[in-house]
Amino acid sequence: MTLKERDKKHIWHPLTQHKLHPEALAITKAKNCILTDEDGKTYIDAIASWYTCMYGHCNPYITERVYQQMQQLDQVVFSGFTHEPAVKLSEALIEILPDNQEKLFFNDNGSTSVEIGIKMALQYHFNKGEKRNTLIAFQDGFHGDTFGAMSVSGLSVYNGPFEDLLLDVKRIPTPNGENHEEILAQLETIVTQHKVAGFIYEPLVQGAAAMKMHDKAGLELILQFCKKHNIITVADEVMTGFGKTGTYFASNQLNTKPDVMCLSKALSAGLLPMAITSCSQKIYDAFYSNDIAKGLFHGHTYSGNPLACTAALAGIELLTSKEIQDNISTIITSHKTFGKHIRQHHKVASIRQTGIIFALDLNIKMERYGNLRDKLFNFFMSKGVFLRPLGATIYILAPYTISKKELEKVYVTIEEALEIL
Ligand SMILES: *Cc1c(COP(=O)(O)O)cnc(C)c1O
Description:
By secondary structure, this protein is an alpha/beta fold.
């Protein structure tokens, strides 16, 4: 029996309606940008396996370091204990995070990093003796699948059955360059009617909302409004972090720095699961007390796992290297050229780009997970390119190590796909 067949017996896959999509593709090998399936067919991983392995799969620089670490220290409780990989990672990460970030809270995945961000915002006010229970989020934001993260997310396919059980969240539109007055008016209304603890946002690019991109000045105004009202700002950089927007973090491109930041995905370079919620001194100080109950009583068993920390540290070394920074510039330029060309096509409604994130909207109505979208996905896979269109949006978010030839193949395949629609 093939892996594909054996898989069906016991495995329940994430985000999958098994009756409609019974088959999972079995991948046996990954090297740099190439995935190989059990039949030996290869695919260019043009979405970096959900924005994680930005330095390529099985990057020898990272795997060698983790292999060394494995023989030294594998795992230890992170409550009351510490170790070199976590300490070194904290120093390297603080070096590249926005200046105001001072403390790092280790955890396991993007959703939990958001849960902690939400808890920090809520408990910050609680510890200060103020009851503030409302959160603000973008209408079509996505922050993960645990209850707090679901509450602040706006995609009802995911949240539908749980809607009555979620936190109190008020939603605002994303800034598009024309609506900032409307958004500010909405914010004014929200703060007069509710006690707002925090605002959570994906800065500049919203991944799951089909790479929706923000008007920077509009986002800046929202953040300034929050600062003025002591609303804790939580930047969810789980997707945007670690170089994808052209700077180490999207928040580096904004003047108003977040109080809290959520990091995962590319943090540990696609090798091991890990997340970090970082915060400013102001947040940390609100929890620092002789009163034990003012602490942040949150912890995950594998927090600060030494192997994941080692992978993350090696990843940051690569990210800050001249070679990767040059690759990022090359991809940015290359996408711009492709964008100029493809936007002329009559089936392309619009294109947009932030850093190495490129997206194009088709001039065709499509359901997020409908048949046309499947047709497009299957076409890409048949051509050996792993792209995962979201509704009528095709996006590229390839590893920084993608070769010129591979990138060219991704572009050509997208252009060919327009012909089958
Ligand atoms: C993927 C993602 C999450 C959730 O991360 P998981 O590791 O899948 O739980 C949260 N926020 C954003 C912006 C993401 O892209």
